[in-house]
Amino acid sequence: MSEKYDVIVVGAGNAGLVAAATTAKNGLKTLLLEKHNLPGGCATSFRRGRFEFEPSLHELASVGDKEHPDTVYKIFDNLGATVDWRYEHNIFRAIVKGCDGYDVTLQAGIDPFCDAMEAAVPGCRASVHRLFEYYPKVTDALAYITRMKGKPNGLVMITKHADFMKIASHSVEDVMKSLGIPEKARNIINTYWGYLGVPTDELNCMHFLNMLYSYVVHGAAMPYKRSHELSLSLAKVILDAGGEIRYNSEATEFLYDGNGAVCGVLANGETLFAREVISNVIPHNVFNMSDPKNIPETDLKLANARTFGISVSTIYLGLDCSMEELGIHDYTVFVMTDANPRKQYDDRKNKSLYIVNCLNKVIPDSSPEGTCTMFFTMPTFGCDVPKDLKPEDYKKYKNRLAEEYIEDYEKLMGIDIRSHIEEISIATPVTFARYLGTPEGTIYGYALSGWDNILGRISCEKDEYTIKGLSFCGGHAFRGDGYSSAYVTGDTIGHRVVNSIKGGN
Fold it and tell me: Is 201 within 8 Å of 344 (Cβ atoms)?
């Protein structure tokens, strides 16, 4: 007879790990299933020769430090997951090519950030500072909405949280224009749109402001031993709390009882039962692993109405010289052909935006002495991969991609990269689709834009997917994109399931 668990978590990605750690630490009999031989999903690392590379992580927002902990730091600390955080306080360098371009480096800290903006765009400081003044008002309103369990009093919202109401349903561009922020200043600040995958004329301002404020106040954080350190620290919490992790164990079917509630999964041919199942797997895939008669029509329509979020193409380089010898001085550089985020998005196939990172700037010994690593990231969608690309031409496609971007960066920065390449690896949305199993290789689940923005998801989250016994966490859930948001959804769903099974608030 199959063993029954309190909770089965499917997928050891960022959110799944936090969810399983939360339920196990709260005394629930927890099983975490992972199809790969390592935890983490994208939060892992791989080796090529003597170099270790990150599949996807640039840096994390919402971390903070021991003295000023932000959301992610608190989640890890509350779970007892130990991470050696390192920090970068130049949050990014933005270079727009061409005669009307610019080269601006922005620092962490609201005043240093506003000072750098004023130097780049004289006269903009006051309007930029007003943008940050919205943030505490947003968090106060969200705290009230949470206390009211998603059903706030309309009069209270209008009288006490009017500023939240002003920005919550508007785009980043609309809000910034209303504050009188000049176009050039808007474009510089909005460089970060690539991290969310939605251009700022349709990206919800509350969503963007939350990320921007976190980066500006606390700077960027990275785990000293790569993102694999994050995953292993959470896995240790699960095991220390008596939870079970099964690697090389892919869930192939979601099981339902006679009342239409999820009651377990099938993995490696074994039937596993649980009182609650938490999926770190995107709803599209879960529904494909379910008997169609058990999927409510509204749930299926919701999933199919959504647009798959952004993926990336990436170039990983291990170089036989140090960053100083190469002439690299920055951790994160955004390179753009046009300053406008919408034009960058629309022309993304033509090198309109790419990001270059050198981890050695923050963690000098992240590669062997006398070497360095570089990481090129190009925001792209699975649909951007040529539809007529033949398997035998895929390697040529990847090599051409790497050649074009590396050559472009060499010319821009006046450095020689190609003659120092010791190791190179190239990934596309095809790579992420194969590894993650997500449709079109999306790393962010569903795009947070239009009607499907973060406010809509948070407001309607309890009504989104209605199958009893099944909860979703991860990039496709109510918080959407990125590592930090994934940890938040794992924490939220984990505690929700604990309360459902054990009772309490």
Answer: no
3-state secondary structure 12-70: CCHHHHHHHHHHHHCCCCEEEECCCCCCCCCCCCEEECCEEECCCCCCECCCECCCCEC
What's the confidence (pLDDT) of residue 1?
47
Main-chain dihedrals φ then ψ at residue 190, nearest 5 degrees = -80, 5
* Among the listed residues 76, 92, 53, the one whose alpha carbon sits nearest the alpha carbon of residue 220: 92
CA distances from 81 to 27, 235, 352, 467 (A): 17, 9, 39, 31
Phi, psi (deg, nearest 5) at residue 378: -120, 110
Q: What is the mean pLDDT of each run of 10 residues along the chain (505 residues)?
A: 86 97 98 96 91 89 93 97 95 93 96 97 97 87 74 83 81 95 97 92 90 93 94 98 98 97 96 97 96 96 93 96 96 96 94 96 96 96 93 96 97 97 97 93 89 82 88 88 89 95 77
| 316 in Cβ contact with 421 (< 8 Å) | no
Q: What does residue 60 show for φ and ψ, rounded to 5 degrees?
A: -110, 140
Question: Bridge partners of 105?
Answer: 93
- Please report the sign of the dihedral spanned by the C-alpha atoms of residue 487, residue 223, residue 230, residue 52: positive
| CB-based burial label for 120 (10 Å; 0-12, 13-18, 19+) | middle
Cβ–Cβ < 8 Å for 494, 278: yes
Measured distance CA(451)–CA(471) in Å, rounded: 22
Amino acid at 187: N
Q: What is the torsion angle, in degrees rounded to the nearest 10, for the CA atoms of residue 386, residue 449, residue 221 and residue 343?
A: 60
Pairing, β 372-380 against β 353-357: antiparallel
Asked if residues 262 and 470 have their Cβ atoms less than 8 Å apart, the reply is: yes
List residues bridging with 107 in a β-sheet. Answer: 90
Helices and strands in the chain: count of H runs, count of E runs: 19, 18
Which amino acid does the sequence have at 111? Answer: D
Indicate the residue type of 95: I
Identify which of 80, 81, 28 has the alpha carbon closest to the alpha carbon of residue 244: 28
Per the structure block, which two tokens stand in for 56? 């996807």
Provide the residue type at 223 as one letter: P
Sheet holding 311-319, edge to edge: 102-107, 90-96, 332-336, 353-357, 372-380, 311-319, 421-427
Alpha helical stretches, state H, 94-161 = 110-120, 125-147, 154-160
Q: Which two tokens stand for residue 205?
A: 């301002």
Calpha distance 316→336 (Å, rounded):
20
Query: What is the helix (H) or strand (E) element at residue 332, kind and residue range?
Result: strand 332-336
Q: Which residue has the tokens 């406010």?
A: 455
**CB-neighbour burial class of residue 130 (10 A; exposed 0-12, middle 13-18, buried 19+):** middle
State the residue for tokens 């190469």. Answer: 326
**Tokens representing residue 184 in the block:** 């050039």
The number of residues in the chain equals 505
Nearest Cα to 49, choosing from 368, 396, 365? 368
Residue 130 neighbours by CB under 8 Å, 6+ apart: 179
